[in-house]
Amino acid sequence: MRLLYSITIHLFNAAVHLAALFNYKARLWVRGRRHVFDYLAEQCKGKAHVIWFHCASLGEFEQGKPLMQQYRASHPEATILVTFFSPSGYEVKKNDPAADIICYQPLDTPRNARRFLDTVPVEKAIFVKYEYWYNYMHQLSLHQVPFYYISAIFRPSQYFFKPFGKWFAKQLKTCTYFFVQNEISKELLHSIGIDQVEITGDTRFDRVYDISKQEYELDFVKDFCQENTQLIVAGSTWGPDEQLLKQLLEKLPANYKLVLAPHVTDAKHIGQIKELFQKFPTVCYTEKDGKDLSTYRVLVIDTIGILSKIYKYSYISYIGGAFETGLHNILEAAVFGVPLFFGPKYQKFNEAVQLVALQGAFSITSHEEMLQKCQLYASSPEAYTKVCQICKEFVQSNLGSCEKIISKLVN
Fold first, then answer.
1. Are residues 305 and 385 in the same domain?
2. 189 and 299 assigned to the same domain
3. Which pLDDT tens digit goes with each residue over 66-125?
4. Residues 6 or more apart from 183 whose CB is under 8 A from it?
């Protein structure tokens, strides 16, 4: 089975190289790995105490960042290395000061995993949330390097818990410790003989809470809003989300405005958004200078890196992805205590499941459902306040994950 796994990895690599001929993101994925071992050899020369954090993409980096910062504070001699699987994470965070070295993760082949551990003097490895790379785990255990999973979450449908996944479950047992988000994950690991596990919650709560406490003002958002504006902030949206929001805006009073931050910000998609919202006065973030933003009803954020701060100004928030690709980060908005809306595919996201059950977030399939809630909040301020309070208390009740984890990592 290990051979079959490695063959699959090689086939995936070939498919991405083929896609790179036509797809920009795939080209970044390929180019970023082209000289990665040379880069690592240069950057790690003379280094010791390398603490390796692996993040799939941007969201996982944000989960791991508070731990990177706390580890550095307690061990200033440590070198923090961050690897990314996806360009969506690397291209945004490649210069983030939380880490000393940032690069793409070499693909999980037996040769690459051996070469990585021979090149990088890894003292500890931390995998954020998921990405169970068999060959890397195998080499870490052979090199006797302790490795951990933080903010991990498991589901019964994963192949580790199926009869055909026993070979991989055996490799999972070599992990030094699992810090998981919930009781279900702990019980699933116990079911395959893994006892080195503790429920510590999700480090993203600590991260978004830290962001929410920063003092800042976004003048362009304040200029966009007028005194009576009810601002809808829609983050990480895809086509179906944008169609829904367009239909919603057509039914709402003129004092409702929309800040739209799509997940894909290339010229083609921004052009599609402009065409979709052409009946509304629409302006892009990169075109805002010299314009009276108060005269526009839709502001399109055609850049990346500022969405988490824009949520501060929202009356209600919409989180994209749950119609097709999977729900994006809801905690960045929840921390500011506003009602949350998203599509129907959210069941794999523990925080969304919990917040829907608490009635602080709402899964919808049409704009009419969101419209009804907007109308309710307009007529019943106490109903709106109640939902806001639910979201605030939900975040605050889940703080402290980083402290629980760091106490074991630094020993």
1. yes
2. no
3. 999 999 998 999 999 999 999 989 998 999 999 999 999 999 999 999 999 999 999 999
4. 199
Task: Say how far apart CA 309 and CA 93 lie, in whole Å.
Answer: 16
Helix crossing, 2-19 with 24-33: angle to 10°? Answer: 120
Domain range for residue 135? 2-210+399-409
Find the Cα–Cα–Cα–Cα dihedral 369, 373, 375, 378, rounded to 10°.
-170
- Examine the domain organization and report whether 187 and 284 are in the same domain: no
- At residue 411, the pLDDT reads 64
- Alpha-carbon gap, residue 119 to 73, rounded angstroms: 26
The token pair at 288 is 């805002």
220 and 318 fall within a common domain: yes
User: What is this structure's pTM?
Assistant: 0.84
- Nearest of 62, 124, 126 to residue 96 by alpha carbon: 62
Q: What CATH number is associated with residue 40?
A: 3.40.50.11720
Mean of the per-residue pLDDT values for the chain?
Answer: 94
- Give CB contacts under 8 A, 24+ apart, made by 249-254: 249/277, 249/280, 249/297, 249/298, 250/279, 251/367, 251/371, 252/371, 252/374, 254/297
